[in-house]
């Protein structure tokens, strides 16, 4: 197990974390942006997982 094997998962997980923080911020614009980042980060994570 080498740490460099998991570097591809860092970016999508970070995007999902930022999306979650924006999603719980109580303003409609940031919540919509956060939901979009959560969706994009999830898709990106599943794409990287299948490679």
UniProtKB/TrEMBL annotation:
UniProt keyword list: Membrane, Transmembrane, Transmembrane helix
Membrane-spanning parts: 20-47
Record protein name field: Uncharacterized protein
């Amino acid at each position: 197990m080498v740490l460099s094997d998991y570097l591809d998962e860092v970016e999508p997980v970070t995007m999902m974390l930022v999306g979650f923080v924006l999603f719980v911020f109580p303003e409609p614009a940031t919540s919509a942006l956060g939901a979009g980042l959560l969706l994009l980060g999830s898709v990106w994570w599943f794409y990287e997982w299948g490679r």
